[in-house]
Design brief:
The complex is a heterodimer.
Chain A: E1 5-6, E2 33-35, H1 36-46, E3 50-52, E4 63-65, H2 73-80, E5 86-90, E6 94-99, H3 104-115, E7 120-128, E8 138-141, E9 148-150, E10 156-162, E11 167-171, E12 178-181, E13 190-192, E14 200-205, E15 208-211, E16 219-223, H4 224-228, H5 236-240, E17 247-251, E18 260-264, E19 276-279, E20 282-283, E21 294-300, H6 303-306, E22 317-322, E23 332-344, H7 353-362, E24 368-369, E25 374-375, H8 376-388, E26 400-402, E27 408-410, E28 424-436, E29 440-452, E30 461-474, E31 479-495, E32 515-516, E33 527-528, H9 532-538, E34 541-557, E35 563-581, E36 585-588, E37 594-597, E38 602-625, E39 628-651, E40 668-690, E41 694-705, E42 714-725, E43 739-753, E44 767-776, E45 779-784, E46 797-810, E47 815-831, E48 849-869, E49 872-890, E50 908-912, E51 914-917, E52 937-938, E53 948-950, E54 962-963, E55 976-981, E56 985-996, E57 999-1010, E58 1012-1013, H10 1076-1079, E59 1088-1089, E60 1092-1103, H11 1106-1110, E61 1116-1130, E62 1148-1158
Helix pairs in contact in A: 7-8
Chain B: H1 2-19, H2 43-50, H3 75-81, E1 86-87, H4 111-123, H5 131-156, H6 180-197, H7 202-205, H8 212-232, H9 239-255, H10 269-273, E2 286-290, H11 301-304, E3 312-313, H12 316-319, H13 342-346, E4 361-370, E5 373-375, H14 383-388, E6 416-417, E7 464-468, H15 469-482, H16 488-493, H17 495-502, H18 526-538, H19 545-551, H20 555-559, E8 564-569, E9 577-578, E10 585-586, E11 591-595, H21 618-623
Antiparallel strand pairs in B: 1-3, 2-7, 4-5, 4-6, 8-11, 9-10
Classes of the chains: A mainly beta, B mainly alpha.
């Protein structure tokens, strides 16, 4: 199935013996007019013979007209190769086709003679890693290289005439060669491993393909089958995570949502900018594509590789190529499935209630707690007793105990987070049929994937159906037409709380689940409590249905030799349908009041579609003149995108069972929105190489975009790259036995970035037909907004990338690697409106303009080791990459820190440096709480013992030994400095593979080695770092319990405000004075380390021996068992996933199994 | 080969069609918005362009502006900064010098000014409008321009005077601040022009929009503020402002002769109901108000006061500012029964106090006289229930305005007041977590029983006044005094109208001397002090406090007062009490005032004179060095 890999055979085989009778074998042909290839197929089908030949020597596409009436194979062959240099030899089971000049037949005779010689005879069997016999593998005695043999149909060989210390070299095209000393053995079975590196790999590049060894740009190609394997994932994005150095994919875990951010080599611009995702040369929605339909993904990382796609390709290109069968391949029917069970892997964890009550009291609150005047001490005691002896309490509802005062106490301590979670179920089924005759190639596939997520109920699900149909026909020998039609449909359902409160961190773990007994509610009704679980159970879901039809037509004309003209047309429609009806449902909180929410039910219908039309036409000319190889390509591209959105919200349905836009009696908010852009450009590429050793490539594109004003609409973006195959040089001869490849690459290119929203150069005034800023007789008013400032001069951002790369392959191709270093300058970045500060008197933000430059430096390393020890094959792949971006120009001369400034690294975190806690010794007395001379004070706060102390880094006229933010400028940042950076650094991915007699094991790892993030809120600070009045709503989490606490709060006690634990994790808890805001300011103390390592997947598989499955008509049968997201190692607080950095829809582990069958 | 040529020609011609010099392919414009050329053509265009400016009335940069959410983020704050009110969870930053530097914002905002200037620049070219219509929109533009400049000047003093649309290249964008007197004089000219030229387009604009009365009310507020500022901050040229204030105030007093007396029957009902009425459209004295309507536009001002999240309370010294019903101070009134018991503190006081802070009461919870409560056997416990009216239903929504006993938003009964946040439950000082405060004096200006409360989305719909005659009467009284014209007649036309509605004995100027209020700021004339007291009490919790004490230049007097809570026994509260000798907290007294916050002066803090003007955000000076900082910052 590796269509991007072409086998170029090197003829190096021998036959066993000549059987003269063999020449009498007969076959029946239905037609006398056929190709050499078809003839060979027929011979193999109708006789026992295997036809062995080199595709370089034998043209299988050649048409022959046969006169033969004898039906003898030998006669047919005579006729077919009459007038050519090809001759044939019959072996036991073989027919060898070879060029006459080499006179292999003669050497075969010699071989036979030498095999008759005396000496040790060794026999054995050669198989591949799947246990399939390797037919025609060459076994040569290294001490006498002219002495050798080949394996037979069953992979068996026998070689005589060896000495005891002979070393056998076993080689086969496309497999890793092995050298095996006899060491006295007479039976040696060998497992050979396929070697993709050794093959002449072809990589898909912009509007064409390139042999990998001739690549001069920074391109990483991934075979989808390798990264997807049998993993329980329905999206190609997930499969690519960690697979490509420089390609970073991050984001949430919700299945089917476009919540992953893809990024190549870091943030392109202060305006963001995403890589261009192309499906067969034209943008598409990767989420809607069945990864099973993907053949390969090429990631074009440097400007030289991506420039051909023009102004949207500045952040690189992810080039997805769908599966296309080759000519003359057998009909193949494949079915695979995957069943998985998913459970969440990371949840927030609250501290025990006993700690919570203690913290509440330590914060200085009264004993009488919460809405119903519960007494904290009593409550704590009840909870304690309930734990050991629940039957002692006569509870109602979910552990609600009414004590003698009639006050309810909530005694059941629980994990409200796990209560919304259960085991989800995942399953996929894929069926595909493919094949090709000489003139027609086809592939049809259907896929269905379904995920019921890990939330309780089956309300969170994602289902997708994909069908595709590809057909390619050679209508004449110079005209080929391809048509690829695919359609995808997905449906997603997701429970919707009020806002996002299914994932609230604001609810204590004493909160009862289920229903609040009617005896307790003020209205006497029994109603559900407002817990995350009930929100899922009682709330409605958002429903999203997407349709994505896509038509791709490609016409290929070869009018003359070496010239190919291509015309591609693509239509893609992304049709999005969203609906959500909030309904109203009654619930209560533990404040006991029953309310119905929301106050007004809202029905939302949103529908948008994007119609995308693209035409690419290009011509490729290929020519070799002696040792000079030339390839030229030029073309034209035009794309238009039209987006239309209608978004309606209506309130107060007549009936909640049939919500509709028409059945609303309340307010109606109707919106429409359009966005349109067009792009047009011409492009070219020239490739030249000498002896395939010195490589040169020039690209260019002239591009225009409707997103820019007429005067600045077009831009020309050139690029240049060169390569040098050092290992091919004569002076490298001494290293050739261990160094197979050493290639140095250099590239430079310039690309425009038009990744801004359309219409920015048109000053527009929004109209709001229903603005609540004022009412007139109960109706909202119509408002018109004033326009912002607009710069008419802005144009493309320009991205220049220089890349130096090294590719190598050593130790008999066991170790291969690639290293790239690059520098990317993003120039003339469009500063968004307001990004450049204007004096406020202007009254609006500065217009967008090309005002900033940024430089990104980075490197990428990929290493692969592949080897085999006996039956055990193994491989280790590792990639590591890093980049950092720095602002090199920004019109912020004063260095305001609220803005970018020159020299700033992207994602720097400014903060204060902690210096322990204030102690009572820092104060003059405990009445005025005046700080002693020389003790650092904090502007805006009157500190007390137990408050965070910070290091005084900077003094100025207004601030002597005082913590403040200074002028908020680079020159005077106050007492802040750069304490960290949230750019993920040293991102890595790794894959490990083992195979042994049909068993396979693969492990995928992925992670980030260095990253700091600032996370505030509940997961980090006790009572969420908020004031006292909110403390009753804010639980304490497991990591908050060690806070600064005085031994005594009695001013007369000698231990007044002397801490029990001077080195506590947290500052003192506050009842009244809110120094909390000072204590929770961004500081190094609470900066989080967001580095992580995640075991993404482990899969164990077993491929049944073919001998076993052949009998039932199955060519391949594989069973597998895998785990996705097995383990994560991170220092972040529980519940905070390092890929998303907050608590939300859970990340989950999927244990899956399934089968892959090919007929 | 012939066929091949045909197809090649076909493809080449297809390419040609697509590549043809078709510029329109790359010209795309938005489909759903206007441009400046098309936005100012009709009368209604101008109307729609002006409506966004009404946002100023909920923009809390202006302390008196309303808040659609919680009033504690809006008008209450003006009186918190003045020290008249307190926040439960934090002290007054002006008292403890915790005002931090502002690098941006701080009210230095010219967005509305740009919007208005854009309209003003487009009026003359609007050929479809009559001159009268043009004058009307120009007047409305001048009103809003001045209304926002009132706040800019109030905060910063000198400010750039911007009357044109600026862009990044305009010299004015990088110019210096203009002299306050030049700016305010220009504003006055514009406001008077608008007063003369605004048309009567009520039928086209709506009946609750900017009209001549609104402009006059704005002039009344503006001129008093500017006049007193100029006078007390020694800028001179203040009398014409007082005269202007008297002029427009008298016009309005003629147009709005009545004060609202309310519907719910309590003493001073009209005073309290001004903030919690269902409909202000026909309420006497209301000049401009903000309309709210169920499911269309709602607020949360009432709801929050029924929850545990309301943090606004009154310190003892402000309670002491309320007169007794005989019109005398607590120091001189024979009706005053002392503050050692909450019931006596409230007894015989100016009823406006009951409408601002919740009076004490006690009932028995559980079904009895009424569905969820019954009276206790102690008659005193119902004294203020009888005055405020009975909350018979204890439901959500309930009935009436400010009825007792109180309840939370979900109609959970609050059986007694005081309900101290740190009161001790079994001592009868802590009933519930909601509707609790630390001082004992819980502010409930926006509380009503009839509005539906809800903890998920705002459901309150009471209308809120923006300009009303009560303020104008007080502006008039103060201006008259500043002009030396505050006669008994002037008092009768202004302050005594408010006293009459509040059922407090009228002010008799002749009786006011140095002994009238021994606790007054001795720097202030006794009569002026009483005029200011009336203003403070009448406009309590409406956002005027801080602006008033700054223009009077007596901020230190109010801000430096130590904020204390009610008198209580130590055994009833988990708080320190106030040591009168040291002003420090103590737990060694058996009873005393609740110690809320430290004494700013004892802590070595207190009001700084630089606070009279706000800090110009430092970013602005960095961006434009021509801008000078205000003194002290």
């Amino acid at each position: 199935m590796k269509i991007c890999i072409i086998f170029l055979f090197v003829l190096s085989f021998q036959t066993m013996a000549i059987n003269s009778n063999a020449q009498d074998a007969v076959i029946n042909l239905k037609t006398n007019s056929l190709t050499v290839g078809q003839l060979i197929n027929e011979i193999e089908k109708q006789t026992e013979y295997l036809v062995v030949y080199s595709s370089r020597e034998v043209n299988t596409n050649q048409n022959v007209k046969l006169q033969n009436s004898s039906n003898k194979v030998s006669d047919y062959l005579d006729e077919a190769f009459a007038g050519t240099e090809i001759r044939y030899e019959f072996g036991n089971n073989y027919i060898v086709l070879a060029k006459r000049v080499k006179d292999n037949a003669g050497s075969i005779a010699q071989m036979i003679q030498s095999s008759q010689q005396q000496g040790v005879t060794v026999t054995g069997k050669i198989t591949d890693t799947d246990g399939i016999p390797v037919i025609g593998a060459t076994i040569v005695d290294l001490s006498n290289p002219s002495h050798g043999t080949v394996t037979d149909y069953d992979g068996n060989y026998s070689i005589a005439g060896l000495s005891e210390n002979s070393v056998l070299q076993i080689s086969y095209v496309g497999m890793v060669s092995q050298e095996i000393p006899l060491n006295g053995r007479t039976t040696i079975n060998i497992v050979m491993e396929s070697d993709t590196e050794m093959l002449d790999e072809v990589v898909v590049v912009g509007f064409g393909t390139q042999r990998k060894e001739n690549l001069t740009g920074a391109v990483t190609a991934v075979n989808m089958e390798q990264v997807l394997g049998d993993r329980p994932i329905s999206s190609a994005q997930l499969a690519l995570q960690g697979a490509v150095p420089g390609l970073s994919i991050t984001g949430g875990s919700t299945p089917g949502q476009n919540n992953k951010t893809i990024n190549i080599r870091g943030q392109l611009s202060i305006n963001g900018g995403e890589p261009l995702i192309l499906i067969d040369n034209v943008p598409g929605n990767l989420n809607m594509l069945n990864p099973e339909d993907i053949e390969s993904v090429s990631v074009l990382k440097d400007a030289a590789s991506s420039a051909i796609y023009g102004a949207r390709a500045a952040n690189g290109v992810v080039l997805v190529t769908t599966k296309r069968p080759k000519s003359g391949t057998d009909f193949k029917l494949n079915y695979n499935n995957n069943f998985g069970f998913s459970t969440s892997i990371n949840r927030p964890e609250q501290a025990p209630l006993s700690d919570y009550f203690q913290a509440y009291l330590d914060a200085g609150f009264s004993n009488t707690f919460w809405a119903n005047s519960q007494d904290v001490q009593k409550w704590a005691q009840y909870v304690d007793e309930y734990k050991t002896n629940p039957s002692k309490f006569n509870t109602i509802g979910d552990g609600i105990f009414i004590d003698t005062d009639g006050i309810p106490y909530y005694l059941h301590e629980k994990d409200i987070f796990s209560n919304v979670l259960t085991t989800g179920f995942y399953n996929t089924h894929n069926l595909s049929a493919s094949g090709g005759t000489e003139k027609v190639r086809y592939r049809m596939s259907g896929g269905y994937s379904s995920e019921d997520g890990p939330l309780i109920t089956d309300k969170d699900y994602y289902r997708r159906l994909n069908v595709s149909s590809y057909i390619s026909a050679d209508m004449t020998d110079w005209f080929t037409q391809e048509l690829d039609i695919r359609y995808a449909q997905s449906k997603q359902s997701m429970p919707q709380g009020r806002g996002n409160d299914i994932y609230t961190l604001r609810l204590g773990n004493y909160y009862p689940e289920g229903l609040m007994p009617g005896s307790l509610t003020l209205s006497g009704e029994e109603v559900p409590l407002f817990t995350p679980k009930n929100l899922v159970l009682y709330g409605n879901t958002t429903n999203t249905i997407r349709h994505n039809p896509r038509i791709f037509s490609k016409s290929i004309i070869k009018p003359i030799k070496d010239l190919e003209l291509v015309l591609e047309y693509t239509f893609d429609r992304d049709d999005f349908n969203y609906s959500y009806y909030s309904d109203k449902w009654k619930h209560t909180t533990i404040q006991l009041a029953v309310s119905e929410s929301p106050a007004n039910d809202v029905y939302t219908r949103q529908r948008y579609y994007t119609d995308y039309n693209a035409i690419n036409s290009y011509a490729t000319y290929n020519k070799s003149f002696g040792n000079h190889n030339l390839k030229a390509m030029g073309g034209f591209s035009q794309e238009s995108s039209f987006y239309e959105m209608i978004n309606n919200q209506v309130k107060d349905q007549v009936s909640s069972t049939i919500p509709s836009l028409g059945n609303a009696t309340g307010e109606k908010i109707l919106n429409e929105n359009y966005s349109e852009y067009t792009i047009r450009g011409g492009f070219f590429r020239l490739n030249y190489n000498y002896l395939n050793k010195y490589l040169l490539e020039v690209n260019g594109r002239y591009d225009g975009s409707s997103k820019f004003p007429k005067s600045n609409r077009f831009g020309f973006f050139p690029s240049l790259s060169a390569g040098w195959q050092i290992a091919e040089e004569g002076f490298m001869e001494p290293t050739r036995n261990w160094l197979e490849q050493l290639k140095l690459r250099f590239s430079w290119g310039s690309i425009g970035n038009q990744a801004i929203s359309p219409y920015q150069y048109t000053p527009s005034m929004g109209i709001n037909s229903s603005n609540g800023v004022w009412l007139i007789n109960g109706n909202k008013v119509v408002t018109i907004q004033s326009p912002g400032l607009v710069s008419s001069a802005f144009t493309w951002e320009n991205v220049e990338t220089a890349d130096i790369g090294l590719d190598f392959s050593v130790l008999n191709n066991r170790l291969t690697g690639t290293f790239d270093w690059y520098q990317r300058d993003t120039k003339g970045m469009i500063t968004k409106a307001g990004a450049i500060e204007l004096p406020s008197v202007v009254g609006t933000e500065a217009p967008a303009q090309n005002g900033a430059d940024m430089r990104t430096n980075g490197w990428e390393l990929a290493l692969n080791w592949r080897d085999r020890v006996g039956d055990l094959g193994y491989n280790i792949g590792f990639n590591l990459y890093d980049h950092q971006s720095k602002i090199t120009k920004y019109s912020n001369e004063t260095g305001l820190l609220s803005d970018y400034y020159e020299g700033a690294y992207l994602n720097n975190i400014w903060g204060y440096v902690s210096d322990g806690y204030y102690s009572i010794d820092d104060f003059e007395d405990t009445n005025s709480w005046r700080l002693k001379e020389g003790i650092t004070s904090i502007q805006g706060y009157n500190v007390r013992p137990g408050d965070m102390k910070f290091k005084n880094l900077n003094d100025d006229d207004n601030s002597t030994n005082q913590i403040d933010a200074g002028n908020n400028t680079l020159d005077n940042p106050g007492d802040r400095k750069i304490i960290g950076n949230s750019t993920p650094r040293f991102q890595f991915g790794s894959n490990l593979g083992l195979d042994y007699k049909g068993f396979g094991l693969s492990v995928l790892l992925q992670g980030v080695a260095k990253r700091e993030v600032w996370i505030s809120g509940q997961s980090l600070f006790p009572f969420a770092g908020s004031g006292s009045s909110d403390a009753v709503f804010q639980p304490i989490y497991y990591n908050h319990t060690n806070y600064w606490k005085p031994i005594s709060e009695d001013p007369n006690d000698p231990n007044y405000m002397v801490p029990e634990n001077p080195n506590a994790d947290y500052y003192r808890l506050y009842g009244q004075v809110q120094n909390v805001a000072s204590n929770t300011r961004t500081s190094d103390k609470f900066l989080q380390d967001a580095s992580y390592l995640r075991v993404k997947n482990i899969t164990l598989s077993y491929l049944f021996p073919k001998a076993l499955t052949h009998g039932i008509g199955v060519s391949d049968l594989k069973l597998f068992l895998g785990v996705e997201n097995l383990a994560t190692y991170t220092k972040l607080p529980k519940g905070i996933d390092p890929e998303r950095l907050n608590w939300n829809y859970p990340f989950y582990r999927t244990v899956s199994f399934g089968a892959n069958i090919t007929f | 080969m012939k066929k091949k040529n045909h197809i090649t020609i076909l493809i080449v011609s297809i390419l040609f069609v697509f590549t043809a010099c078709n510029d329109s392919f790359l010209e795309k414009y938005p489909k759903t918005s206007l441009t400046e050329e098309t936005a100012f053509e009709t009368y209604d265009n101008f109307k729609s362009f002006v409506f966004p400016l009404y946002e100023m009335f909920i923009n809390n940069t202006i302390a008196t502006s309303l808040n659609n959410g919680f009033a504690q983020n809006g008008p209450y704050l003006g009186d918190v900064w003045a020290g008249h009110l307190a926040r439960r969870n934090n002290f007054n930053p002006y008292a403890f010098q915790t005002i931090t530097n502002s690098s941006s914002g701080n009210g230095w905002n010219f967005g509305y000014i740009r919007h208005i200037n854009m309209m003003l620049e487009n009026i003359d070219g609007a050929d479809n409008l009559t001159q009268e219509e043009k004058d009307h929109w120009k007047s409305v533009g001048y009103f809003f321009h001045s209304y926002w400049y009132m706040e800019l000047v109030n905060r910063f003093g000198d400010v750039p005077w911007i009357t044109e649309v600026l862009d990044e290249t305009s010299p004015k964008a990088y110019g210096p601040r203009d002299d306050r007197k030049m700016v305010t004089d220009s504003m006055l000219i514009r406001l008077k022009w608008a007063e003369d030229h605004i048309g009567n387009f009520e039928n086209r604009d709506g009946n609750n929009t900017i009209n001549q009365d609104v402009i006059q009310a704005a002039i009344s507020r503006f001129t008093l503020r500017e006049g007193t500022w100029r006078k007390y901050h020694n800028l001179g040229d203040h009398d014409k402002y007082f005269q202007e204030c008297v002029r427009v105030s008298e016009i309005l007093m003629g147009k709005y002769p009545q004060l609202y007396t309310g519907t719910d029957g309590q003493p001073a009902a009209g005073y309290g109901e001004m903030w919690i009425s269902k409909d202000l459209s026909d309420v006497p004295g209301v000049i401009l108000y903000k309309e709210y309507k169920d499911a269309i536009l709602t607020h949360n001002n009432g709801y929050v006061e029924h929850t545990s999240s309301h943090i606004i309370e009154m310190p003892q010294h402000t309670v002491d500012l309320y007169l007794c019903k005989d019109g005398l101070t607590i120091d001189n009134s024979s009706l005053y029964e002392g503050d050692k018991d909450m019931y006596s503190t409230f007894r015989n006081r100016d009823p406006r106090m009951y409408h601002t802070i919740m009076p004490p009461f006690r009932v028995k919870p559980g079904s009895g006289d009424y569905p969820t409560w019954s009276f206790t056997d102690n008659a005193t416990d119902r004294e203020y229930i009888d005055i405020m009216g009975l909350n018979e239903s204890c439901s959500n929504p309930g009935v009436g305005m400010k009825r007792l006993p109180a309840q939370n938003w979900g109609a959970d009964l609050l059986p007694y007041i005081p309900n101290l946040q740190n009161g001790i439950g079994n001592q009868g000082t802590k009933a519930k977590a909601f509707v609790a405060c630390r001082s004992g004096y819980y502010v409930w200006k926006h509380w009503s029983n009839w509005e539906t409360s809800f903890n998920n989305g705002a459901l309150n719909t009471s209308h809120k006044p923006i300009f009303k005659i009560e303020e104008v009467l007080l502006n008039y009284a103060e201006s008259k005094w500043e002009l030396g014209q505050f006669t008994q007649d002037a008092a009768n036309k202004s302050i005594n109208k408010l006293r009459e509605r509040a059922e407090v004995a009228p002010m008799t100027i002749a009786n006011i001397d140095n002994t009238f209020d021994p606790k007054r700021d001795p720097r202030v004339d006794p009569v002026l002090w009483e005029i200011r007291r009336e203003r403070t009490i009448e406009l309590m919790a409406e956002g005027f406090g801080f602006d008033d004490i700054r223009r009077w230049k007596t901020a230190d007097w109010f801000v430096n007062k130590q904020q204390l809570g009610m008198w209580i026994e130590q055994s009833k509260v988990n708080e320190s009490l106030w040591d009168e000798g040291t002003h420090l907290p103590t737990r060694n007294l058996t009873e005393g005032y609740i110690y809320l916050w430290g004494d700013p002066l004892v802590e070595g803090k207190g009001w700084l004179d630089k606070y009279y003007l706000y800090q110009v955000p430092t970013d602005e000076i960095v961006l434009n060095p021509e801008i000078e900082q205000n003194p002290g910052w």
